[in-house]
Prior knowledge:
The structure is a homodimer. By secondary structure, chain A is of the alpha/beta class. The first copy, chain A, has 16 helices and 11 strands. Chain A has 2 domains: 1-30 and 69-84 and 360-476, Aspartate Aminotransferase, domain 1 (Alpha-Beta Complex), CATH 3.90.1150; 100-346, 3-Layer(aba) Sandwich (Aspartate Aminotransferase, domain 2), CATH 3.40.640. Helix content of chain A is 45%, strand content 12%. The first copy, chain A, has a 7-stranded mixed sheet, sandwiched between helices. In chain A, strands 8-9-11-10 form a 4-stranded antiparallel sheet. In chain A, helix 7 links the parallel strand 2 and strand 3. In chain A, helix 6 (148-163) crosses helix 12 (310-316), helix 8 packs parallel to helix 9 and helix 14 crosses helix 16 (454-473). The relative contact order of chain A is 0.14. At the A-B interface, helix 1, helix 2, helix 3, helix 4 and helix 5 of A face helix 1, helix 2, helix 3, helix 4 and helix 5 of B. Chains A, B: Keywords: Aminotransferase, Decarboxylase, Lyase, Pyridoxal phosphate, Transferase.
Amino acid sequence: xxxxxxxxxxxxxxxxxxxxxxxxxxxxxxxxxxxxxxxxxxxxxxxxxxxxxxxxxxxxxxxxxxxxxxxxxxxxxxxxxxxxxxxxxxxxxxxxxxxxxxxxxxxxxxxxxxxxxxxxxxxxxxxxxxxxxxxxxxxxxxxxxxxxxxxxxxxxxxxxxxxxxxxxxxxxxxxxxxxxxxxxxxxxxxxxxxxxxxxxxxxxxxxxxxxxxxxxxxxxxxxxxxxxxxxxxxxxxxxxxxxxxxxxxxxxxxxxxxxxxxxxxxxxxxxxxxxxxxxxxxxxxxxxxxxxxxxxxxxxxxxxxxxxxxxxxxxxxxxxxxxxxxxxxxxxxxxxxxxxxxxxxxxxxxxxxxxxxxxxxxxxxxxxxxxxxxxxxxxxxxxxxxxxxxxxxxxxxxxxxxxxxxxxxxxxxxxxxxxxxxxxxxxxxxxxxxxxxxxxxxxxxxxxxxxxxxxxxxxxxxxxxxxxxxxxxxxx
Amino acid sequence: xxxxxxxxxxxxxxxxxxxxxxxxxxxxxxxxxxxxxxxxxxxxxxxxxxxxxxxxxxxxxxxxxxxxxxxxxxxxxxxxxxxxxxxxxxxxxxxxxxxxxxxxxxxxxxxxxxxxxxxxxxxxxxxxxxxxxxxxxxxxxxxxxxxxxxxxxxxxxxxxxxxxxxxxxxxxxxxxxxxxxxxxxxxxxxxxxxxxxxxxxxxxxxxxxxxxxxxxxxxxxxxxxxxxxxxxxxxxxxxxxxxxxxxxxxxxxxxxxxxxxxxxxxxxxxxxxxxxxxxxxxxxxxxxxxxxxxxxxxxxxxxxxxxxxxxxxxxxxxxxxxxxxxxxxxxxxxxxxxxxxxxxxxxxxxxxxxxxxxxxxxxxxxxxxxxxxxxxxxxxxxxxxxxxxxxxxxxxxxxxxxxxxxxxxxxxxxxxxxxxxxxxxxxxxxxxxxxxxxxxxxxxxxxxxxxxxxxxxxxxxxxxxxxxxxxxxxxx
Lengths: 476, 476
């Protein structure tokens, strides 16, 4: 494709995306295709001769759009948000257009240096401790990973490196994200060496006293307590573990403290929400939060900071001959390939840089506050309605609640709630997801898309009530 | 950013990229910035108020472009190519614009189904075996990973799962990519359990007899031989391990055979180069090649196929409540989160689909053939010149050779070759990299950018000769 052809088709694609963003609301939120339907609508074999890009764009409308669930829809309330935004898309486009490799400082210095800058900017914005800053002469630093899952693997490797040889043990709670168990499997620590610490049944936050006991038991039994993962904003209900108390225990036992703030961490752009990081400054060895969830930056952009990058680099660094270069040998530069699992890396800093510059601290705070406000509004609706039981913790953008089904067993109630959820999602008017707490299925409304306005959450709430009423009215 | 603002700035960014691609040749290939220079040219702290996107674009020219090494420059011959192309950039742009998450089939069916389709298309194009196809009722399948490094981790995990408990051992050669050692570290197999099998000193290909011995020794010593990595096109010199003979040994011992064809695998779009995959159809348990190197598809796009996906899914699958859904429970769909380290995933299939459709099989073959031809041309130049010694193996796009420094020791010759390389790269006229074989530093010219024409390789060769002559003429 010549540059001129790229210019022509590029404008068409930009127009398509602008139109898509302007009209996303017209699509049913969740795709209605059946398994196999998308694939069956496309040729089974690749073309022998090249086709026009118009053909690709035609299939986009015909096959792809009906086959996707619209995560950018203002009534998408599932899982957690996956924010996209104009400046992020453009930053990503610049990255694709430049097509550089950032595996080493030397392979494109700006790719590394802009990244060290923007992760420091983000640390500023979130008021994270100075020891996380990426000064070449400091011990700490930040890096963009593809996901908090990969960041968890890196944290486990660093913690294991620091702990030395032995039978390593990791500590999580029942509410910790499944990626920690996955990291234990990937790293060979093994699920048998993941201790699940009890949570407080009211708050679903990790019980520090139980953590302390577990670590003491393991020390006595000859294990090496290696890493504790504390979560700030769990996936299920955005519970917040008591990081300060957990950190004190970690310090006493010399255990690495990883703080998983994948979803909620970015909320610290707002000073009034910075309580969420209480204890992080003093105790966290590593900390991860995902601008690709609630901070307007397209997936993938998960930022991991470390107070001391040395054990991570020791765990991951290998320098084959063909990558040797004077900048690396000088020790004056950061080589990010030693901070991640892959070797190659895209210029992901461009999108986070574009987002922070376009919105400014002010705009980012306004975005988070709007999500918190809308969530507060929905929570108020639920609290005022005797047909529903509100989960009392909703400080961020997630509201959990369950419909009450008088006269039904818990099992039947759960089944009814799942049926309600399916009907809502089948309607195409909104998309929600669910979780299970203490045996009860809860509906989850995660609010935080930049397109979501008051009318969307109001309308979602009315729909939920209407579907519930209609189910209640049906003969059993 | 409103859709209309996105339309306006999007067109500007498209124009910038079109202009960049049209004029990339005017930049020095390698960035000349010093460590810290890029960062120092930008504000130390994030802006409080949002800025115009014009400011971002202005800094792109002022700071970013001088700070990058131009991997898309027609005279970039370093490492391996990192091909970008118009349709790939546009496919990536569509992915960013749609902003969907493909972690599960259910979270956006088209993201999964288009991926199963295009990896099957690519298997067709490369004439890979039918057992790698992603039929829902078959055992095998393909998946897009970010890199061959991550694919290696996944392969090790699958191999370990199949092998069961025990002291696992991996087998590589001295020419195997460092990502295999990295995978051994990440997975906890440990570098002590990576056996480095000798290579034939003439071809640098793994010696199957030595592999057989190593495995037999390990079995006798109570280890569990778990995986052999055979490479098709090593990073150093594009050596090709004898996959068929290695595969027979693997089969006899029940060891997983992973084939790393990260660079060279895509060359099999050309029937005349399919000898490179001899033995793959019969013996490979997993196979990886990177369209993001030499097949016109922007990083990241590394395709991993498995003959049996079950051990991988067993090693990586965890299903927390919030991800449960009817499609997953039905078993009728592929959930790619179980095929990779991260949970979340971008819609990367769009770019590979765009590339295959735009170029067609015909266009992809023409692209690879052009690289092979140009490499053959350079190799001819080197062979005809008594001042240089050609490394005799150059079937793909890589040509390795060394300048001869009469009267110098090997150490001094290597230093002189490195000085020559630095002078060439400092000139900005071309960028090359190096490797070391049997104690000798070799220069590497990796040809394969779609922008590279005959004049660029001719001009690079003249420059190399001129710099060499000028060094020879200097007083010692």
